Fold this sequence. Notes:
Mean pLDDT: 92
Amino acid sequence: MGKFWSEHRYPFTQKGIVERYRVAKRLLLLREQGWSDDSLGRAVARQLDLSDSRIGSPLFFTLWRLEKQFKSPRQLLDLLVAIVGMPEDVTGERAENQALVARFYPNLAPHDSFWWELSQLVDQAFPCQTMSQQDLLARQLHQLRYVISSQQAEYVRQQFKRSGETDRQALARYLRKVYPWWHWKKDYTIGSSARLHNKLKFEQGTKRYPSAYPSFNIKILIHFHTEFILDSRGNFLNELDAQEVTEIGIVNGASFNYGKAGKRHWDLDVDTVRPHDPAFRNQVTQGFRAPNRSGRGEAEYDRSYFNPQGLYAEKGLSNHQQTKLVVREFKQLLKKRSR
């Protein structure tokens, strides 16, 4: 790393020596994260501020663009999980959730193009069904999906939520600002099937909702990759929430999607749950099951998402019908003007 100093001179004074020491210390930390000497040398030559390398920061994007020139998709993903500090298994504890979310720059928005770039890297690094095989990086990336969803929920809360408001109100304000009504391209969808996010447990014939309150949870997607889950009360549901850890969040929470709709979604996001979910979530979700897609007259129609008299129904409406009512409420909220 000695060549750095010939490119970026410091005066031989007390102030200059202190500054050189500060930069050297920061460079060593960045090197430990996995950034290459070449990229760091260019950053020093450009006299970039090295103090903030959180994912999404100006320094991160500069170094990331440099690394992309010679690193493979897998090497880039290895670098990313190292920066986040992803363990082999997350614990689900709030302190850890907060620490992981804190590795992201607070202005990294859910609609930033970096997320689509990340999805492409995962798609390239894990062809066919290799994402669900025993592989430490695959396990870390699968669990990173929960961290990303938590980070994106925190962005909406911190940037758009006002005192006394729900997450739902904040999300509506965010969507109105980023995608106003005249926006020509439909970049987000409301009301995509949330069947898998409406799991219940049946104990001795008694229906039990996670967190012990009836809720019909809806899904909002941005470019299919970014996912928000809202419960009937207007709360974000996340497996690794940075503000409040809840049973309903762990069971029915959001997870960022690496794949696109179709087979790659199953390869990268659905089939990975069984081999790579963390132990704490496996324990909490035990016994909870999502409604099935059976139609009238088919086997196990009593557990169908569409049965208005089935086990997942409430007040004469199917689980699907109940979620549609919540979707309608959210769409009405989107139409309201707010400052």
